[in-house]
Each structure stands twice: as structure tokens, then as C-alpha cells.
Amino acid sequence: MVEKCAANAFPVFETLKKVFGFQSFRPNQEEIIKSILNKKDVFAVMPTGGGKSLCYQLPAKVMEGTTVVISPLISLMKDQVDAAVENGISAAFINSSLTTKETASVFQKLRSNSLDLLYIAPERFAMQNFLETLKTVPISFFAIDEAHCISEWGHDFRPDYLSLSIIVSVFPKIPVAAFTATATPKVQSDIIGKLGLRTPFTVRASFNRPNLLYRVESKRGLEKQLLDVLEKYEGEPGIIYRTTRDAVMTMAETLKRNGIKALPYHAGLPQEERKANQEAFNTDEINVIVATIAFGMGIDKSNVRFVIHADLPKNIEGYYQETGRSGRDGEPAECILYFGRGDIPKIKYFIDQIEDEKERRVVTDKLNQVVRYASHNVCRRKQLLGYFGEEYPDDNCKTCDICTGNVERVDITIDAQIIMSAISRTGQRFGIMHIIDIVLGANTKRIRDLEHDKIKTHGAGKDRDKYHWHFIVDELLVQEVIQQEGDRYPVLTLTDKGKKVLFGKDKISALKREEPKRKKRAGKESELGPYNEDLFEKLRSLRKQLADDQHVPPYIILSDRSLHEMCRSFPTTHSTMAEVSGVGDAKLERYGDIFIKSIKSFLDENPDIEIAVERHASDVGHRTAPEKLSDNIATGTTFSKKSKTVEKTYELFKQGHSIGEIAKKRNISLLTVEAHLEKLIMDGRDIDTERIIEPSKCEEVGRLFLTLKSWRLTPVVDHFKGSVSYTEAKIARAFMRQKD
Ligand code: ADP
Ligand code: MG
pTM value? Predict the structure, then answer.
């Protein structure tokens, strides 16, 4: 990174840091920006969250004249303009949501050449007077966002986009840069052709989203499964996708009953309600939005920490797009698919309604691909990228359930033979459920009527449970040892490969994995390591307040990544605050002091942290290495001049003074004294905790921290409904964290 800051690149890196507050470019951004600065057309396919906006916002700030951005969604336009303005870029938009007066004022700014960025809706280009105005002002370049909308081959064709074709003829000297997150090679050449791009600098970025963790779980008791996940994410934003409107409504109700701030979203709700619910989600008023796939376009919310598919998606494209809405800020996010075979016939039912046979086949193939994705024991990331024609090079992606689980290859020939024997002995005329019933030795009426209790395989697998046999059947289907025939009532039959296995001519094995150990609060460990969660809560609510005051979504004020960083490096000066990713000059000026104040008061209340920070700062200068720093906090063994004040508290406590007395005597706050005691206890010093909390209570409270897997005080204090004070909880917490 350092050597990249060559003199000729000066304004670009300077702008990246000063305006956007970022330390380095994401893949391809630098090359794209340089092409634009060199007046060359650009065509870029980059995944959601890849950072496309920066590719045109940065040159817009650097270049002479106004950059015109064409974007299809009114709601997105406003958020993008708000975000740019927050960064100190002069930006505005024109679309149908503005009054005539507001529009006139934007035109005024445009004419006086005082705009860096102008967002407009595509239909403007069909308006002659608009074009005439544009011709009279200096334009640096045109950026076309969501460029796939111009292609009829794409999935989101918008006829209005066709009018953009005239840009290159009306403004032949001005470069055009087109961006999209989805374009097959066919759509790509269609876009380039329709826009008339002139041998553009072309980027097809990797679709890999390294910060997303992919997981598939069997759907068993969905409600409990979801509540478990939501508990882990307490209060952080996420999306739950469901297939039907009914399911959306019921689930939103259930979640609300369980105390979760959730709202529904589907195309059948009245428009105002839909809009209000989306807004509530966007502004962190609520945490969870339960939605059909109608939800997602038109939000750029960067701090979505999880996306759950509670039903089987219809195809991989959709799944990738929907999961892609999480973790735009680059911080870890989790994508969970609850897979139940029961969902397959429901989707098949809809597929059956399709009249055109060819289309029906295409849609069925797509569904089969999703089923394979969910049931095949192959790295999820490899499968997803493979679908888009991209080869994932590593053997272990480290961030999917397959790669993080304990995978072991086991021989399943005998189990396969049991299943196939049951299929074969019943004439290859029955479905999965019935075959598994036979193998398990079930005594159902159907089995008795058909005399399937008389065949040799009846009960042959009763020493294993039904989940095991479902796993075997899934695996045999995936490996095409058996197959399903018939659409409405599919029956299992043997393939040629299967016959070989049945007659002992071939063996078959499967990757069997243990459920991965549940990652402790996957969402709370950012890429750079753990951060202080208590401070995060504090800064998050401060961000929410500021956002509400200005009527913008919180992530526009500062991203989760920026807050996480603050909760790791505890910046208390302008220079350290400026080092935080996402804090550029404008944000430093606007929010620096208020966040610094909040961090300072937090450190005041928690001097053990301050000690570590100060010690670290004096060791290595103000730029702190996160891992090292958090080590220091965790072990709490660092001492410095600050340790003297802790020692003073120790002395007084040993002399028999209470917390209140010490605070008074030393003229420091109660919170500080408590923090001193916490530190002393953690360090294993001789502190008589019984003077503050009774031993059995201390143990009970302490154990709850372990159960909750979090050192946060509030949930514990709340749990005891008033019978445990914060002071007591702190002492119990320190007691549990004591080093032996
Ligand atoms: P896209 O439009 O490609 O989906 P965005 O432009 O909305 O993505 O960017 C996603 C997020 O990534 C935003 O929060 C943005 O601030 C952040 N981002 C963009 N470029 C960088 C960078 N170089 N370093 C850090 N964060 C970045
Ligand atoms: Mg975008």
C-alpha cells in the first residue's frame, strides 16, 4: 500500500483517505478510477458490496465539472446523495420525488458548476430541455449504475434505460462508465453495444464475497432454530426471506411475540406500509425484516449482519443476490439456508403451472441446482462461484459450514444397499417417506396393507434414526445412485450406477460432517478480531441519535466497520480518530468530537481498558495493532502510571473502606472505583469480594455470563429483574474472568 502512493497518484490516494476515510482500494477500484481519469470508457461487473459507488464518486470529486450518475431507483438515489454529502461531496439528485421548486434549485446549482455529482433517473434523457441544459454545463463523465437494466437479456430490464443510448452521440467527447453486479457475457456485450461504449476498459471482478459465511442447516423446528440465531445477533440487523406472503406475516408475528423487533414486507401490503417498514429497517428502528424476495432492491443498507432463507430459494442467482445484501461494509455476515426436502414439492407445484415445456425444464433445472447446493457436501463457496463460471482456487474456504465442519469420508455402501434393496423389493414404485419407513421398520397402516412388513429389508435400518436415512437418501440422489421420477408423486428408482452398488460391484462413500461447533457470536468478531461490545452498543445508539436528527439511515453517518474499529482502538484524539476506516475530513469535523467524547467517557468508566490503550500507545505510537491491543485488554496485565491509581484503590479497599468511601476520599467516580476493583480481581489480587456480593450469588451471576457467552452487563442485570445490581454483576464478571 505504501509504495502505491507514488507521486503521480497523489490526488487519488489523497482523496480516498481525506474524503472517504479509507486506507486502501478494494480490488479493481484503482484501475477503474484511473481509466476514468484518463477519459476512457469503463464497463465493470463487480459484486454487490464491491464498492462500485466509490469508482465514480472519487473521480467526481477530483475531476473538473459535474459527474452525471444515472440510477434506476429513487430511494437509492437519496441515500447515495446523503452519503456523498456526509463525505463532503457536493451532490444532488433530480427525480420525480422533487417539487418543481426543488428541481429548479438543483438546475441552478448545476448551471453554476457547483455540483460534483448529479444523480438522475433514466427517463430524463428522453427530455429535450434536460439534454439542452446538460450541453451547456461542463460534464466530467457519465456513470451508469445498474447498467444491466438496459438489456432485455438481463433480469431487470427497464425500457427507460434504452434512452441512454443517445449519450455517446450527443456527448461524444465525454467518457461513460457503466457498472452492474450481474451480467452474463451475453448481457455484457448487449450493454456495451446498446450504450455504444468505445473499447471500454473492462472489469469482471470475482464474485467471491470473502466476508460472508455460508451455512446450510436441515429445517427442523424452524421457529426454535431462528430464535437461536436471532438471540446470537441480539439487536443487529438481518433479513429473513420466506416464499409466501402468509409465511411472512405469520413469522413476523411470531418473532414479535418473542420480543424481537421485526416487521413484514411483501408486495401485497399497502404501499405506505411497505415503505414505512423498509424505512424502519433501513434506519435501525427494527432489527429484522421478514420478507418475500420482493424486498431488497432499493436498499443499500451496509450493516445487514445476516440473511436467512427459511425456505428453499428457487434458483442460485436469486440466492446469491439475496445473500449478497449482507455485509456490504466488508464486516463478517452470515447467510443461513434452512433446507427441508418438504419445500421441493411446493416449488414443483408452481413449476407445474408453467405451460411452456422448455421454460418448465429450465426452471426445474435451476431448482435442482439449488437442491444440489444444499445437499451436496461440497464447499458452498466453490459451488456458488462455480455456478457463475468462476473457479474457486482454495481447498478450504474457511467460511462455510462444509469447510469449517469436521468432514470425514465414510463408506456408506451397506446403508446404500439397504435403501436400494427396499426400493427394488417394492418394485421401484414408492417415494422417499415410504422407503424410509420400511427401512426403519415402521408399523403403519400403509405398510401393513401393502404387506411391506413382510419384505426382508423391513426394519433393516432400525438402529439408526430417520435423519440418518434422510441423509443417506439425499446423498444417493446427489450422487445419482438413485433418482426421483414423476413430478407430482415422485418415486425412487435405481440408476445403472445404483444397480452396480446394489450388487456389490461398486462402492460408495460420502462426506459426513459433524455439525460445526457453533461459532461463538460469529457476527461480533469482526475480521480484525474482537472489539469491545459495550462500547459498540454505546456508539451505536449515539449513531442512531445523530442519524435520526438528520433523517438519514445510521450507516450513512458511519459504517459498522468504522464503529468496530473505534471499539478496538479507542481513539481519543483527532489524529487517531482520522485513522479509523471511513472517517474522512468531513466526518472527522462533523462527528469526531462527539464520538471522542463518548469514547473518553467510556474509558473513564472502564479504566482497565484505558491502561492497556495508554500502555500500548506509548509502546508503538498511536497507530495500534488491533490484535495486540485486544490481547492487552484481555489479559489486563499491563501496568503504567495509571496502575498507581489502581493501587491506591487497592490500599483503601484493604483498609476496609467501601466503594462509596473510596470514591469520596479520592474524589473519583463510583464507576472508576468499580473498574479498579474489577481489574484487581481479574489480576488475581487479594480482594475480598464477599464484602460486595455474597459468594453463592456471585457464582450464580457469574455462571450466567458464561451461559450467555457475553461479558455484557445489561442482559445479566435484566435477567435478575432488580435483584442484582450493576456493581454486583461487575464483581461477579471479574470473578469469572480471574486468571488462575
Ligand atoms: P456496490 O454498489 O458495489 O454494491 P457500494 O458502493 O454500496 O457497493 O459499497 C459498499 C460498501 O463498501 C460501502 O459501505 C462503502 O463505503 C464501502 N467501501 C467502498 N470502497 C471501499 C474501500 N476502498 N475501503 C473500505 N470500504 C469501502
Ligand atoms: Mg451500488
Answer: 0.69
Contact yes or no for 332/347 (Cβ under 8 A): no
pLDDT for 645 beyond 90: no
Identical fold for domains 7-204 and 212-404, yes or no, is yes
pLDDT over threshold 90, residue 179: yes
Q: Which CATH architecture has domain 212-404?
A: 3-Layer(aba) Sandwich (3.40)
Give the three-class secondary structure for 296. strand
C-alpha cell at 696: 453463592
- Domain 7-204 homologous superfamily, CATH: P-loop containing nucleotide triphosphate hydrolases (3.40.50.300)
Ligand 1 site-directed mutation target among 16, 31, 53, most atoms within 8 Å of CB: 53
Q: How far, in Å, CA of 58 to CA of 584, rounded?
A: 13
Evaluate whether 213 touches 522 at the Cβ level (below 8 Å).
Answer: yes
Residue with cell 464483581: 731
What mean pLDDT is predicted for residues 550-560?
93
Q: What is the C-alpha separation between 381 and 348, in angstroms, rounded?
A: 26
Report CA torsion sign: 134, 137, 142, 145: negative
CB of 528 closer than 8 Å to CB of 565: yes
Render pLDDT for 586-609 as a digit per residue (tens, 0 to 9): 999 999 999 999 999 998 888 777
C-alpha grid cell, residue 168: 455517446
**Ligand number with the minimum distance to the CA of 54:** 1
**CB neighbours of 669 closer than 8 A, spacing ≥ 6?**
604, 605, 663
**DSSP string covering 94-152:** ESTTS-HHHHHHHHHHHHTT--SEEEE-GGGGG-HHHHHHHHTS-EEEEEETTGGGG-T
Give phi and psi for 624, each to the nearest 5: -95, 140
How far is 228 from 6, CA to CA, in rounded Å?
Answer: 50
CATH code that applies to domain 612-739: 1.10.10
**Residue 10: count of CB within 10 angstroms of its CB:** 10
How many residues in total does the chain contain? 740
How many whole angstroms from 552 Cα to the centroid of ligand 1?
Answer: 18
> 299 alpha carbon to ligand 2 midpoint, in Å?
9
pLDDT score of 610: 56
How many Å lie between the centroid of ligand 2 and the Cα of residue 300? 7
Topology adopted by domain 408-514: Arc Repressor Mutant, subunit A (1.10.10)
Nearest Cα residue to 399 out of 384, 387, 386, 388: 384
Crossing angle for the helix pair 585-605 and 74-86, nearest 10 degrees?
A: 80
